[in-house]
């Protein structure tokens, strides 16, 4: 049985540069606690929909997930889950790749913890945690203003 090998394009440095700049932008926006700016960073939460990605989209998803992990590990501002989720969402949308943003909460040791993650089908692109299933995602809000 032969494995199908996919050649990765040589645009990874550009993708990393774009991810770095966007993450820095989100970091400043989130630090400023400007609700209107934060609200405009993403559309309302999405319904879970399974998409049939083509081979090119699958490669892009892998590249974007890799760029997100690089930013998470190397950025000097230590981006948190919401920053990375917005970054993933923006990069995926720029490449016409359907994705789902989830924001969930859980109660642990009498405190409420929040987390944000982005998925393409059942693959977590940003925000993976081993205990991700312990977060209860907010339900999507459609056609309503916040």
Show the helix and strand layout.
Elements: H1 12-31, H2 35-41, H3 55-74, H4 81-94, E1 100-108, E2 111-120, E3 123-126, E4 136-137
Helix pairs in contact: 1-3, 1-4, 3-4
Description:
The chain has helices spanning 12-31, 35-41, 55-74, 81-94, and strands at 100-108, 111-120, 123-126, 136-137. By secondary structure, the protein is of the alpha+beta class. Strands 3-2-1-4 form a four-stranded antiparallel beta sheet. Helix 1 crosses helix 3 (55-74), helix 1 packs across helix 4 (81-94) and helix 3 runs antiparallel to helix 4.
Poorly predicted runs are 1-8, 142-146
Mean pLDDT: 81
Rounded radius of gyration (Å): 16 Å
Helix content: 40-55%
Q: What spatial order of strands do you see in the largest sheet?
A: 3-2-1-4
What is the structural class? Answer: alpha+beta
- Sheet with most strands: 4 strands, antiparallel
Tell me the number of helical segments per DSSP (H or I, 4 or more residues long): 4
Oligomerization state of this entry?
Answer: single chain
State the distance separating the first and last CA atoms: 53 Å
What is the succession of H and E elements?
HHHHEEEE
Task: Quote the beta fraction.
Answer: 15-25%
Would you count the extended β strands for me? Answer: 4
